[in-house]
Every structure is written in structure tokens, then in C-alpha cells.
Amino acid sequence: MAIARTGRLMTRATDHAARIRNAWAGRVSGCILGKAVEVLSLTQGPKALTSYLHRANCLPLRDYVQLIEGTLVELTGRQACRGEFSRSEWDDDINYTVLALMLLEEHGLDLSTVDVARAWLRLLPAAATWTAERAAYRTLLLRTDEMFAHGAPPDFDLAECSDNQYSDWIGAQIRADMYGWVCAGRPGLAADLARRDASLSHRGEGVHAAAFIAAFAAAIPTASTLDGALDAACREIPRGSGAWDAVNFARSLVGPLDAVERIHERYAALPPVHALNNLALVVWALLSHADDYSGAIGDAVAAGWDTDCNGATIGGLWGLTGDRIPEHWTAPWHGRVSVTLAGVGELDLDDLVARTVAVAGQLAAASS
What we know:
Elements: E1 2-5, E2 8-11, H1 16-35, H2 38-44, H3 46-55, H4 72-77, H5 92-107, H6 113-123, H7 131-149, H8 177-181, H9 187-198, H10 204-219, H11 226-234, H12 242-252, H13 259-266, H14 275-288, H15 293-303, H16 307-321, H17 327-330, E3 336-338, E4 346-348, H18 349-367
Antiparallel strand pairs: 1-2, 3-4
């Protein structure tokens, strides 16, 4: 079977377990690629990123980033540079994917925002959170302390947690993949699960972006074209919302040579870790390289903004649609996935795949 986009065909793994393996391998590899230059991109901007990649002889970006010693990349991203790692070192993008798996294993379709909050307090180190997640976590800690101080269990309106200045940033979007992976062919259910998770820390466009990514991931395995999967995902978010507009703007840019410049220009006023600018890059890169994993994650990371998040999200989505992830991406980390969730440590890719497939089967049975 094949999946088509604008006349191009690419083979698609029809076995569900194979698609899940591709998604995990694609997400982890894309995250590592972007992790090397994340701090450089966020603190010094796209021009500095392009300059570094030119100096490192890494353009077009089709393999892990080459280390240049004495640079910011050495200080902040060495553990993700080519030849410098033997496992996937921890990253919040992968933390959240594993945490979502654990939540679904425990709660299944009954998952609630309260369950997500309790899991954060029990499993997610506060120091491994940023922006909206850290703000929400801070509120959780303050309110639970207040409640326990008065001899009562924590019981307050969780909406307080999402009342923060980062509520439309990228955090919920990077937590959404798993909900799509385990809901193949059911984008509505995937979007609903993603909203329950996202609502702890995000509002508005932050939630819409998460719902779109989950729905897109769910739609891809049963769609005949990427455009069809994208249409299905768009039906799960409000028409005319910022997320809907970002997706369709990116869709219109497949082909033009100045696409990245036009995305940067359109979203120049937004922070580099906002949901909408990064969502546009994700959609553009995936549609532009439907038959080329390296091109999809490479061009997205080279474009800047939140490089590890975008590399991870595109990698997971591409893995659901295409052949196996090329070996030069997967071989260096040997199926070893490190996280900082309490009591977890390092995980094995085979085990993650088996657990994800099991959850998908349980959800399918529960919703039939």
C-alpha cells in the first residue's frame, strides 16, 4: 500500500507495530538532531544557526550535527552531536511521550486532566519543565501545599494552572504525539485525549495545536494521502483559529523556494517557542518531504525556532507514513532512550514499541 501527496508515492508500513516503531524511532532521532542546536537557535536566532551549520559543513542538514569545539553548541548540545552519543539523552520532548504512554497504561480512555496533574507531581521533575509546564507545576505545588496545610486533600480548580503567560506556546503540542499513535483511524478520539492533557497548562491556540498534532498522527495510518490526513486533523480544531490558519498557510507553501523565509516573516512577532510558528514549520517540512525523512527533519531543524521539538514531532509523524527510518539516524543511539521520569531512567526501544502497541489494542477494544 502507498500514501500519496501531489503525485508522489511513498511506501507505507501496513503493520501497526511497524508504524509504531517508525514513529518512536523517528521521534527520538529527530529530537536528537534538534537538541544539538536548540539553545543556539533559541538564544541567537536563525542567522546564527545557519552560520554554525555552514561552518560545520552540515548544509543541507541530512545527518546529525557536527560538533565545532569552542562554540555554544559544545556547551549546550554536545551530547547530541555526531559521534558524541551512544544513547538518546533525556529531553522533555521524549519525557512527555513516555509519560503519556504511562498515563494511558494506567487510565486508558478514562484519562482526565486531574490524572495528568497527579502524574506530574508523582513522576515529572519540576526542573525538567519549562514555560507553561513550569508555571502550571508551580501553581499545582502552591495549591496542594495550601490544601494540605489546612488538613484537606488538594481540591481546586485546575483552570488556575493554565492561567499563565505561556498558555499558547509549544508545550502541549510536544505532549500530543502518543495520543495519535494509539488511536489510528480515530482522529477525534486522539484530539480529545490530547485536549485533556493540554488543558492542564495551556489554553486557546496551545490546546488547538496539540489537538491537531494528535489528530494528524491518528489520521495518517488510515489515510490514502497526507492531504487527506491533514484535512481530517483540521476538522478537529476550530476553522479560522490560529492553528487552523498556520496549518493551511504552511500547506500553501509546499514548493516555493522561499517558504521558510515566508514563514519567518509571517510569524516574526511571535516568541521562538510559540505553538503557531513551529506548527507551521512542522506541517511545511512534512508535506515538502513526504518521501524523505532526512529532508523533513533536516530542513525543519535548519529553519530554526524550537529545533528539538520540531524535529521530534516531524520525525514521529513521518514514521507513521513511510518506510523505516534510515539506519544512520537510528544506529548511533542503539535503541537506548533516556528519560528523567521518577523510577524510570533508561528505556529500550523494543519495550516502548510493545507497550505502545498494547495500549493501542486496549483502547481499540474499549472504544468498540
